[in-house]
Write a structure and sequence with these properties.
Order of helices and strands: HHEEEHHHEHEHEHEHEEEHHHEEHEEEH
Radius of gyration: 22 Å
Bound molecules: 4'-deoxy-4'-aminopyridoxal-5'-phosphate
Shape: globular
Number of strands: 15
CATH architecture of the largest domain: 3-Layer(aba) Sandwich
CATH superfamily of the largest domain: Type I PLP-dependent aspartate aminotransferase-like (Major domain)
Length: 445
């Protein structure tokens, strides 16, 4: 298998030459928070796949829901005027759980196309409500919103732009709030004030009447698991409202119990105009994403778009009945199955244990919320000195971790990220911390 993998399967987000030499770890089976590879080694999955398998592996009831739906009706197009019971029921379930008037769901296949769909619906909305010049989108540096053509332009991580064309002329970025390294210092008020200033300045430079929307994650994920000060999102929402700009909150990582509540937004008291989600929506058991539109946006389009004239936006697999049947069962497991409550309890313990790692000589800061966490590594804690990127520390640590039976993720040159499944026990977390400490100790040698 390793030879065939190297010969035929493209893995773009690793060095192509190192993949040819080393090949992938081939995963074979999973149960709870644990994975087994093709050579029989067991791993604690400290990253829930790609922060998506929130319920953990091996839930038969999900497999049964998928099989039942596949037998009964494997496909119904949502492209034209058709639907299926699972897509309607899942849309209703999401609308009931999203805050405020976020009541209208468009299903996609994952997060990138949920972001793309949000952008296209926003353009459609502004066009039919008399503001076609609102073409500019603003997002945050260190933000991640997918790697499709549009999503990657909203993403502001150099890795996603080097070798490509970079953001379009309509996509702009303001600095991240990044409390650990914000030039204005650690004061929460100063950080919020600086973000507000940066957003205002960008809006005014572009002309407020030309700006369509501001995109952000409730906690930056792929940028290094960066938690904003409390009140940050509310302050940004306030600026958006002043200028008549739409707010899109991207809950692709933070949704479905990752940070505690079903959606991280619930902690912020903000109702955005649109919301995107994926990953935990089906816990990775089937591909699915969604963009949820508020009543105002939905009505704006429905009431103003030329009657009888369709709009060209749709995916063959939108509202896929099998994915939606999976999503309904996964949602039942979060709620009736107690996984959300377990995630909240174990998430608090995880943050406490992660905090203890600040004692380690390599750890400058540990941070996160719920079952989403990071440690930022430094060579000198007082000066927050970064590691020399030529040391390729993340690669070394990922290998050392894997050798110790722990899977996690590295960001940039110096941040390790963790997103263990919501089914973890406190004992699983102890094991994760033990293996992580041992990994960090080995890196010191
Ligand atoms: N938005 C955010 C916040 C994400 O983290 C991701 C994926 N990590 C995406 C969008 C894109 O999702 P997908 O990979 O499912 O296309």
């Amino acid at each position: 298998l390793h030879g065939l993998d190297r010969a035929h399967l493209v893995h773009p987000v690793v060095s192509w030459s190192s993949h040819e030499q080393r090949g992938a770890t081939i995963l074979e089976s999973g149960s709870g928070a644990y994975l087994r590879d093709s050579e029989g080694r067991q791993y604690l999955d400290g990253f829930s796949g790609l922060w998506c398998v929130n319920i953990g592996y091996g839930h038969d009831s999900v497999a049964e829901a998928a099989t039942r739906q596949m037998r009964q009706l494997p496909y119904a197009t949502g492209y034209f005027h058709y639907a299926s019971e699972p897509s309607i029921r899942f849309a209703e379930a999401i609308a009931q759980r999203t805050p405020g008037d976020l009541d209208h769901v468009y299903f996609t296949l994952g997060g990138s196309d949920a972001v793309d769909s949000a952008v296209r619906f926003i353009r459609y909305y502004h066009n039919v409500t008399g503001a076609p010049q609102r073409k500019h989108f603003i997002a945050l540096e260190r933000g991640y919103h997918g790697s499709s053509s549009t999503g990657s332009g909203l993403t502001a991580l150099p890795l996603f732009h080097d070798h490509f064309d970079g953001p379009s002329a309509f996509q702009h970025h303001i600095p991240s709030y990044y409390p650990y390294r914000n030039p204005v210092g650690p004061s929460e008020e100063a950080i919020i004030a600086e973000s507000v200033r940066a957003l205002r300045a960008t809006v005014e430079r572009l002309g407020a009447e030309n700006v369509a929307a501001f995109f952000c994650e409730p906690i930056q994920g792929s940028g290094g698991i960066i938690v904003p000060p409390r009140g940050w999102l509310k302050a940004m929402h306030q600026v958006c409202r002043e200028y008549g700009i739409l707010l899109v909150v991207d809950e692709v990582i933070t949704g479905f119990g990752r940070t505690g509540p079903l959606f991280a937004l619930e902690d912020e008291g903000v109702v955005p105009d649109l919301m995107t989600m994926a990953k935990g929506l089906t816990s990775g058991y089937a591909p699915l994403g969604a963009v949820v539109l508020s009543e105002r946006i939905y009505r704006g389009i429905a009431d103003n778009a030329p009657a009888g004239k369709p709009v060209g936006h749709g995916f063959t697999y939108s509202g896929h009945p099998v994915s939606c049947a999976v999503g309904l069962e996964v949602l039942r497991l979060y709620e009736e199955g107690g996984l959300l409550a377990n995630g909240q309890r174990v998430g608090a313990y995880f943050q406490q244990r992660l905090g203890e790692l600040e004692e380690h000589p390599l750890v400058g800061e540990s941070r996160g919320r719920g079952l989403l966490g990071a440690v930022e590594l430094v060579t000198d804690k007082a000066r927050k000195t970064k590691f020399d990127s030529s040391l390729r520390l993340p690669d070394r640590l990922l290998t050392l971790g894997r050798e110790r039976g722990l899977i996690f993720r590295a960001f940039a040159d110096d941040i390790l990220g963790f997103a263990p499944p919501l089914c973890c026990s406190c004992e699983d977390i102890d094991l994760l911390i033990e293996r992580l400490s041992s990994t960090l100790d080995a890196a010191l040698d």
